[in-house]
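Known limitations

Files may contain more than one protein. Parsers should not assume a single record per file. Below, a two-record file is shown to illustrate correct handling: read the sequence, read the C-alpha cell line, then continue until end of file.
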Amino acid sequence: MELQVMISMLATSYLVSLQIFAFTLLGAIPLGIPIALGRLSRFKPLAWLMTFYISIMRGTPLMLQMFVVFFVPYYVFGITNPPGFNLTACIIAFILNYAAYFAEIYRSGIQSMPRGQYEAAEVLGYSKPQTFFRIILPQGAKRILPTMGNEVITLVKDTSLAFSIGVAEMFTQGKGLVASQRNMIPFAICAIFYWVTCLLIEFLLRRIEKRLDYYHD
C-alpha cells in the first residue's frame, strides 16, 4: 500500500478521534462546574452525592465506563442499540468521566481563592452568582489552566480507548493497517498525528495563559 493512501486512511479516522475529543470538551468543561459547586455545597446530601460520583468516575477505568454506557440500554432495559450508538456511548462515557476530573480541578481553583475576594465582592454589593462568575471564576481560570491543559492533552491520547466498543478511530485504523501491511509505519503516522495535536493544544494554552496575565495572584 502506498504511503499516501495509508496517510489518507489514517487522516479520515483521525477525524473520528477529533470528534470524540471535541464533543468531550464541549460537554465535560461546562458539566464540571455544577458538579464542583455541588461538591462544595453546604447541603450535605448533595455534597456527598457529588463526592460519590467523582469517586466512582475517577476510581474505575474509562474503558469499563464505556462498556456500561454501551451495554446498559440492552441488558438492563431491553433496548436494542441503534446503528452508530457505539460512538454516542463513547462520547457520553468520556463526558461523564472527564467532567469528574474537571470538577475536582475547578474545586481546587475555587478553594484557593482568598476569603477576602468574597468579602470585598459582598461589600461592593455583588450577589453570590455575580461574585462567582465575575470575580472568582476568571481568577481561578488562570490558576487551574496548567492542570486543565494536562487533562486536555491526556484526552487526546485517551480517544484511542474508543476501539474497545468498536469505534473506528485513528488508533483502531492504525492497528488494522499494521496487521495488514506487516510494518510499523501506520503506528509512526498515528504517533505524529497525536504529537502534532498535542503541540497545537500546548500552543493555544500558552496563548490563553498570556491573555490571562492581567490576573495577578
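...continuing to the second record:
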Amino acid sequence: MRSRSDVLELAVLGQLQSAPMHGYELRKRLNATLGPFRALSYGSLYPCLKALEAGGWIEATETAAPPHALSGKRARIVYQLTADGKERLATTLAHADPAAWEDENFDVRFALFSRTDAETRLRILEGRRTRLVERMEAVRQSMYRTRERMDTYTEELQRHGLEQVEREVKWLDSMIESERTAREQEARRRSSA
C-alpha cells in the first residue's frame, strides 16, 4: 500500500467483500466508512474500479434496467470480488508493514480490522503509535527551537497539532491495551479447553 490509489483499491475490495455493489452504493458506503473528511469522488472511484477489473480482482456485471419510467434506459453495473480479489484482500490484510500505519493508509486498515487477524491488528496499532510518538517529539523539538521566531498564530497552530497527536496516542494506547487483553483472554480460554 504505497499510493493513494492502492489505499482506495484496498477500501473498495474491503467493501465488496461484504456484498456485490453498484458504483453509487459503493461510493456511499466508502464515504460513510472513511468519514466526511475524506470524501470520495466518482472521478477517483471509477478509474479504481476499472483498474481492479483489469487486474482480475473484481468483475462487473450489468443488471437489467429497472422497469419503472423514471429509471432511464441504462442498466446498472454491479461489481463483485473474484476469487483472486478475495485472495488479494486476505493477503493485504494479513500483512503489516510501515505503510499500514502511515496517515493515508491507517484509517482504511483500521476500518477493516474486523477482517484482520489479532496479531496484525496489534502490529499496526503499535507501529502507528511509534510513528506518532516520533512525530510528537519532532514537533516538540521544533517548537522549542523556533519559539522565539514564531508569531502567536503559528505557535497556536503547532500547539493544536501537538494536542491532536497526543489525543491519538492516548486513543492508540487504549486500543493496544484492549487488543492485548483480548489476546490474553483468548489464550486462557484455549488453554482451559
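Parsers that stop after the first record will miss the second one. For reference, the second record is described as follows. The first strand starts at residue 21 and ends at 22.
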